[in-house]
Amino acid sequence: MEHRKIKVAYLLPVSFRGGTSFIEMAMHLPADNFETILITVKKRPKDPDYIDQFGHKVFYLFDEEQENSRFTFGAIRKLVNILKAEKIDILHAHRHRPSSYACAAKLFLKPLIVISHVHGLQRTRNINRTLQNMLWFSLCDKIIGCANAVCGDVIAHNIFVNQKKVIMLENSVDYNRYASVNITKQQARLNFPENYRNGFILGNVARFRPYKGHDILVKAFKKVLASLPEARLVLVGDGPCKNKIEKQIEQANLSRFILLTGRRNDIPNLLRAFDLFVLPSIDSEGMPLCLLEAMSASIPCIATKLSGIPEVINDEIVGHLVKPGDVDELADAMLLYAKTHKEHLEKIAKASCERIKIKFSHDVILQKLITIYNSLMNPDPV
To answer: pLDDT value at position 18?
Structure first.
C-alpha cells in the first residue's frame, strides 16, 4: 500500500510578522510524511515576503491592489478552491481573521481538519468577537494557544468553547541562529555611535505598540541613569508608537542616552551588544519571541509577570520578573543587574540559554507539532 503524506496548509494574515518563526519551524516538517503550502489573506506590497523564500507553493486570497477590510465570500470561495486542488488535510490558521476564513471553508470541505492558532491575550475583546468565536470555535478541531496563559484566556472569555479542543504549543525559535553567533560584545557595538561602545547597555527589540511598554522603559531608564550615568539604552524596531516615544525621549532630555535603531535585519548580531535585555510589556502578550531570542543569545533578561512570560522565566536562575507598569520596580531591577558581579550575570545567561535549547527550540516544538497533526489524522477510537 502506497504511503500517503499528510498535506498541511498554513493560512496567515496580511502582515503577520509574529508567525515568521513558527513558519520557519513548520517548513522543517519531515518531507517523507508531510507536504505543506502557504496561504496569506493578502500579499504585502512593500515588505520582503519571507514566505516565498522557502520554495513552497504560496497562494494569496487577495492581490496587492484589492481591498480586504471585510470578510468576503469571494475569498472563501478562492480558499476552498485552493484547498480542493491541493487536497489539503489540515488547515492551520493563525489569528482571528484567517481562522474565520478557515472555519467557513470547512463548511464546504468535510472532512477538512481546521486548527485556530491564538498568539496573545484578550483576543475576545467584545460581544461581536464573542459571537463570532461561538461559531468559529465550534467548527475548529483544535484551538492552539502559544502559552498556558493564552489557553486559559481563551477558555475564560469563551465559556461555550469545548475545553478539550484547547491545547498549548509553545512558541519557539531557531536556537542555533542566536546561540552560535561568535562575535564579541565590542565587535557587536561597532555599528553604534561611539558613546554607546562602552558602559552598561540595556536593550529592547520589539514593535513600538502600546502594550509593549516602551514608555515605561524610558521612565525607568531615566531613574537608572541618575545612579548609573554610563548606562545607555538601545531600542530596536519600528511601529505606530515610535514617534510618541521619540517625543517622550526628547522631552525628558534623554536623546544622548537612548538610541533608536529602527527596524534591523541583524538581530542575532545586535543582541550580542547588550549587557541586559529588558521587556517591559504591559498587556496582550502571548509568549514573546524577542524574549526567547535574547535568552538564546545568552543575554540576561528582565521581563514582566504577564501571560506566557513566567512560563519562560520561571525562576530567578534564568532571569528576573517585575510587575507590569511599575516604573520603580523595573528601574530597581535594572540597577540590580547593572551592579551584579559579571560572573553571576554570565551564570544567569548560560542558564537562560540552556532553558531555551531544551524547552523552546524549533527542534523540540516541531516534535510536538508532529504529534498534534498525527493525532488529528489518526484520532483514538472513542
So the answer is: 45
